[in-house]
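Entry:
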Amino acid sequence: MGGGEPALRALSLRAPAKLNFGLRVVGRRPDGYHELESLFVPIGLADEVRVELRDAPGVRVRLRLEGDARHVPADATNLAARAAQVFLEAAQICAEVAIVLRKHVPAAAGLGGGSSDAGAVLRGLTQLFPVALPRAELCAAALRLGADVPFFVAEPLRAAWVTGIGERIEPLEKFPDLGILLVHPGLPLATKAVFEEYDSAPCALTPPGSGSTMRSLSGLRDLVERIGVGLLANDLEPAATRLCPAIARLKDELCACEALGVGMSGSGPTLFALFTDRASAEEARGRLALKAPAWARVTSRFEPSVSAGGTDGASPNW
């Protein structure tokens, strides 16, 4: 196996979803990427990822999906599989990586599920091959996979200010412990479609090269001290709502729940309401009158966990 003998042969990790506490589109680069300012917060809702290594004469990646994997690609286009391929090639390691991905985070929900899966695979492989890839190269590989992926390779994973196209990350030392009520309309909403709808609007703030205003980021920073509906503003919400009108109805229901604040995460369609504790969030969930296929879940901040093990009876059966 190239790249030196691995420290371990198998590792299990959690791949948490994230919320965007506010999201401002502050510019668009000449290459078409949008520059954003947001506060990313990892939450308890998480996928489970198991990574195992096997000897192989070249680079090989195998993926098995479990759980609720609707709308999740099961082939080489899956971000978790792509992450393994990119890592092995960048580190010049010949090996087979077997990934078992148990999905709990819905796809195309604005929660970063696919990016988090990719980040978990990169974190796992970094632990299996501790000296194979310098940190700078790992972060560069993460950014090539997707704008949200660099956030998910951070160690430890915690709330952070994220700017640029996702490559500039400033971790927070402290973040309030809140009860979080997630509400999803039950249908996926593609990030690409939302950005295209956003750019088509006459008032879209995405002229090439406009750069960061920092005004929006200074407003977002107030969230650490004072949660408020206005400070959870998401510039993509109008575009997402035009594509998924149910967002507006669900937001009205959440705003009637006496939450600290209500926002939309990422490119949607997931909405979230913030409460002082989980009990208050559970109470609000009980009052919602959701129509199928919408769902609501209560969560809180992400508490990281990782476990390692050998290739025993828990190994994937390919």
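The chain has two domains: 10-173, 179-299.
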